[in-house]
Amino acid sequence: MSPVLEIGDRFIRHVYVLTICLTILIGVVLLAFERSAIPSFLIGSAIGLSLFWSLEFVVRRLVRPGKTKRTKYLLGFIAIGKYTLLGGLLYFLFKAEWMNVYAFAGGIVLVQGAIMIKAIGLMISVLSNKGSDQS
Questions:
Q1: pTM (2 d.p.)
Q2: What's residue 122's pLDDT?
Q3: Which of 5, 29, 52, 119 is at 20 to 30 A from 11, Cα to Cα?
């Protein structure tokens, strides 16, 4: 019997799929109401997805028990490089006159929203299974 609460590769894959679906859905809504916000929202969503992907990549490849000091330095180097690149990108994006900061922020937090939706779904699944076990 497999445990009800399981977070693994499928969970992460579902977060990617849900984020992409939400990006498309919200993009269509923005298309109908606020066309000028679409590029900012899509760029924010792409940045949010890329930050999530890079975190997953680093954790899968480098975070293992018993690793050496070299791994710590490599993690630090990757983090410095990633956030330097992000800082430069954000600097140029915020200098752009067409940038809609609210749509951009909404795109970035879309990944966290997808994770929350998945977590709520897991909690509901656990509670509904617990309720069906008691009857």
A1: 0.78
A2: 86
A3: 29
Q: Which long-range contacts (CB under 8 A, 24 or more apart) does 13-22 make?
A: 14/118, 15/52, 15/111, 15/114, 15/115, 15/118, 16/49, 16/52, 18/114, 18/117, 18/118, 19/45, 19/48, 19/49, 19/52, 19/110, 19/111, 19/114, 20/49, 22/110, 22/113, 22/114
Q: What is the 3-state secondary structure (H, E, C) of the chain?
A: CCCCCCCCHHHHHHHHHHHHHHHHHHHHHHHHHCHHHHHHHHHHHHHHHHHHHHHHHHHHHHCCCCCCHHHHHHHHHHHHHHHHHHHHHHHHHHHCCCCCHHHHHHHHCHHHHHHHHHHHHHHHHHHHHHHHHHC
Q: Looking at residue 1, what is its pLDDT? A: 41
> Are 35 and 46 contacting, i.e. CB atoms less than 8 angstroms apart?
no
The residue-averaged pLDDT of 18-37 equals 92
